[in-house]
Design goal:
The chain is 68% helix and 0% strand. It has 441 residues and is mostly helical.
Length: 441
């Protein structure tokens, strides 16, 4: 006897509430997907299948939820639509990490040559490539990849996402891809996949920092696939958190909340305190973007408590999270709720405790603070913050920093007659060339 699937009455009710035909719903989902680089060809028959009880695979439920959230002007979750929740535990993605590694637009080590440590990494990688895949991969190769993760993370923090992207692309294609296919003991294979997922994650962060969100999203999900193969729940949670942050940047508030909830679920009970704080701080901002104020600040308080009690933060990538970042998230939560004064105070605190080498994050924090000061009418203090931002951003190659510059320029535009603002604009114009579309003149 064949068991029939139950009809999806929740989806039908929401379709009626939205006043959508099945065709209109399909178009909205296709449009939401295209914004993050996913191309779908859904039509009315696809929606008819969903109404009949078919369950689309991730991330489609979250895209459908985002489409309904926009249409109805309130939060609609995948659960409310009768779809399965985005899994908190690893489940394979259809894509393959081998495709990403082979298509990572590899070029010569042009950027890596600028610093001695990267030259050393490049030389060791090139030697491995000339010799072909070793007969057997061991702990030495895992240690080399771990070393590469630390240095590529530091490069992005210090110089911006596009500074060494091409070098990392080459490293992925000609070192990681080769070693992942080579014979190795089971524990070494797991370790290679775990550290490989970290390298892919950093590569995806670089694309997100460049504004290439479609490629970034594909990279994040592929990084999670490698983490899944390694049985690495911590990296899986980190990937979900990144997808949430990206969705929020793109204005997909419902999707951001669903991914953040799943990240917190995946990190609970098994991840280091810093990783749980990392997931909770993103959940807080996602809730604030949906005006869930009490829940947002509960999550932030939990995140700060976790970090305050954590005495084992040694600064390692993927196992640490600075308090300055949580404070920045607190500022973002206040900003989403329209509370400029506490947001400005939190941004000042975040600036004060930022690590000196993390110039990209420092610039983003200073620029946001200057923007909000202008919006709140504190022109003199805003100009001082703006000068600090100009100094920090020099030499950074980051689309996100360019976006911050543009937001700052919009905020100061009503005050261009002010003497201090004219001085800031002149200072910025003389300090360094501006990214495309961010002229200070």
């Amino acid at each position: 006897m064949v068991r029939r699937r139950a009809s999806n009455h929740r989806l039908r009710e929401l379709l009626n509430e939205a006043g959508w035909t099945q065709e209109a719903c399909a178009r909205a989902v296709n449009a939401a997907g295209s914004e993050v680089g996913l191309r779908y060809g859904y039509d009315r028959t696809s929606v008819a299948h969903w109404l009949a009880g078919s369950q689309p695979k991730g991330p489609v439920p979250e895209l459908v939820a985002e489409a309904f959230t926009r249409r109805l002007g309130r939060t609609v979750t995948a659960d409310a639509l009768g779809f399965a929740h985005l899994p908190a535990q690893p489940a394979r993605y259809a894509g393959s990490w081998t495709v990403v590694l082979s298509e990572s637009d590899a070029v010569p080590y042009r950027d890596m040559e600028q610093l001695p440590k990267w030259r050393e990494l490049a030389a060791r990688s090139a030697t491995a490539e000339r010799r072909g895949a070793p007969r057997r991969i061991g702990s030495a190769e895992v240690a080399l990849l771990s070393d590469a993760v630390r240095h590529f993370v530091r490069a992005m923090q210090t110089h911006g996402g596009s500074f060494t992207r091409s070098a990392l692309a080459d490293y992925l294609a000609h070192t990681l891809a080769v070693w992942l296919r080579a014979p190795a003991a089971p524990d070494v294979q797991r370790a290679l996949r775990e550290v490989g997922s970290h390298l892919l994650f950093v590569f995806s962060l670089m694309h997100a920092d460049m504004g290439a969100h479609g490629r970034a999203q594909h990279g994040f999900t592929t990084s999670m696939e490698l983490a899944n193969e390694a049985g690495d729940h911590v990296s899986w949670a980190i990937g979900l958190r990144a997808l949430s942050a990206q969705a929020l940047t793109l204005g997909h508030h419902g999707t951001a909340l669903q991914s953040a909830l799943s990240a917190v679920d995946a990190a609970a009970g098994r991840a280091p305190a810093a990783v749980r704080a990392y997931a909770l701080s993103q959940l807080a901002v996602a809730r604030a973007a949906l005006h869930e104020e009490q829940a947002a600040f509960r999550a932030l308080d939990q995140a700060e408590s976790l970090l305050a009690a954590d005495c084992e933060d040694d600064g390692r990538p993927f196992r640490s999270y600075p308090m300055s970042a949580v404070v920045f998230q607190r500022a973002e939560a206040h900003r989403h709720l329209g509370r400029l004064a506490p947001s400005i105070r939190a941004l000042r605190r975040s600036v004060d405790v930022r690590a000196p080498h993390d110039r990209r994050s420092l610039a983003l924090t200073q620029g946001r603070r200057a923007q909000l000061l202008f919006l709140s009418g504190q022109v003199e203090e805003a100009c001082a913050a703006g000068r600090a931002f100009v100094d920090t951003r020099q030499g950074l190659r980051s689309h996100a920093v360019g976006d911050t510059t543009r937001a700052l320029l919009r905020a100061l535009s009503p005050h261009t007659g002010h003497r201090a603002v004219r001085g800031l604009l002149q200072y910025a114009a003389e300090a360094s060339p501006s990214p495309a579309g961010t002229s200070w003149k």
